[in-house]
Amino acid sequence: MAEPVRKQKKKTVRRRRPGLLSIVAVLAMFVCLGLFVLALVQIDLLPSHILLTGAVILAVSLLIYVILWFKFARKTAARVICWLVAVALACGFFVGADYLKKTDEVFDNVTNLTDRIANTVSLVSLKKDNIDNVSDLNGKTVGTVPEADPEGIAKGLQEVQSKASVSVQDYPDVISCVQALYDGEVQAVLIPDNTRQIIHETDGFFEFQTDSNVLQQTVWYTDRTKSAANDPDSVADITRDPFTVLISGNDSYGSLNENSRSDVNMLLTIDPRTQVVLITSIPRDSYLTMSCKKDETACSPVDDKLTHTGLYGVGTTESTIEDYLGIEINYTVRVNFSSLVNLVDAMGGIDVEIPEGLEVDTFYANGTEGVKAGWNHLEGERALAFARERHAYQDGDNQRIRNQQQVMRALIDKIISPELLFRYPALMDAVSVAFETNMPADQIKSFLRYELLRRPNWQIISYAIAGEPDTQLSGTIGSYVAVTIPRPEMTEAARTLILMTENGDSADAIRSYAEAHSVDAAGSLSVDQQRAERAAGMGEVYVPEEDAGYAPVYGTEDDTSEDDVLYEDAGTVPQGNDFSDPEDDAGSFEYTYE
């Protein structure tokens, strides 16, 4: 008899419900996505339609991922992998939102000019007098110049008298006050610090920086007036209209809320239509009439070196250059030594390649280790010294410009490298205090949006104005100093190049004009002038044999003012320097970033 057929039970697959950890991971992923999208909206770097489309695609993609995960991931290993992916996405969105938040804060920091300006007065003694502390001035005399800064001198003197019993002797100007210090009439002087930093430019006080001690510095603050705020002359559309930016490099470390000399003066004229950037360099010692139309309370219209205009604020530098070239500057950017040091360090250093013959054992600028032939990795301080070095090179200022361009290219290479992602927070912290600009944040974002979407192929052309060495009266110091008299034909050429860029001329036309009006084309300097410039580039002295009067002495003791010169009797200057067959630089160069 056949066995009865057993009825087989149908197996049922029980679908596991998502666990608590899975649900938490999914919620975290969508919350972090929301934070990321919100950060993108707030930073406003992407057009609305691209942002909306991207957000929808991301949200739908994640939703599909979650459905597939919960429906088909049955094995433990698959569920763990899906959970880890969700956590990784949540972390990625959260970090991205944080990066965007930091970036947005940078825009606010660099465009939010402080309402207060720092002012400093310094109490200075001579090292030979062995006065190392304020208390050492008990029973001694302090020289002051009340007219130089009435409020600051009063505050500084009050602080001095709280620490020592001193007599006070007033002088009509800083030079006579410092002379009294050297003559022993006073044992210390209380003077504005921005004036202290340029005293060594004056005949007879070349060694002041190395001869003196700063015993005390009193910092006080004044409100930034409306005129001192230096409002921009904004263009209507920064992605379509040409504009000019002044880059003012201050010769100081630390905060940017204190005025100091403008040792780097570069104009960037940018035309987004033709994708041309013209960089115009103006010698720091150019002898110009100071313009005070940006802040009439800061200065008086005297003749002085361009670098001294920075002592009265970037607005004074801007208006002086505007009047000199007959152009309009739309925006300003201020940087200082700390800016470059902090940026390079935040990026983990930069790499520069040094050709054979341009090695430097030790940088004059700050005494740091130099560079060897081949590739060199530079941290912040060495990068700064490399960008400032002049005395070590036979080609002097021309080589310094090349070094600065190489540093810029190395920074750009770092910015576009994947390594930046790991250093992004540190970089944003550095950028937030690295520079100060009056360009509104919305215009910076508009230009960055243009750069991200259009990826323009910028043609960058440089032109440098040359000049003749001379000695003229400094309105700031009140004595004669070494200056540069800009060559009129090169001044006019610089103005024409800026107007050509603004008018939409092609890069080839602008480049051709720059080359045709360079130093060589404008007319070579005399042999003696060329030898003097070559000597200056090496930190040495060239004295023509027929010169029976005065000779310029180039010093390197205080490289914060490395181009300043003093004048002393030619008979005391060592002779015999030979700088035969000098060569002029072309005066312009061009390169391309893609």
From TrEMBL:
Q: Which UniProt keywords apply?
A: Membrane, Transmembrane, Transmembrane helix
Location of the SsuA/THI5-like domain: 118-197
Q: Where is this region: Disordered?
A: 547-594
**Domain Cell envelope-related transcriptional attenuator, residue spans:** 261-416
User: What is the superkingdom listed in this entry's lineage?
Assistant: Bacteria
Keyword Membrane belongs to the record: yes
Q: Where is the composition biased (Acidic residues)?
A: 556-567, 580-594
The residues that cross the membrane are: 20-43, 49-68, 80-100
Keyword Methyltransferase found = no
- Which Pfam families does the UniProt record give? LytR_cpsA_psr, NMT1
UniProt cross-references to PANTHER family, sorted A to Z = POLYISOPRENYL-TEICHOIC ACID--PEPTIDOGLYCAN TEICHOIC ACID TRANSFERASE TAGU
Q: Which NCBIfam families does the record associate with it?
A: lytR_cpsA_psr
What family does this belong to?
A: Belongs to the LytR/CpsA/Psr (LCP) family.
Protein name (record):
Cell envelope-related transcriptional attenuator domain-containing protein
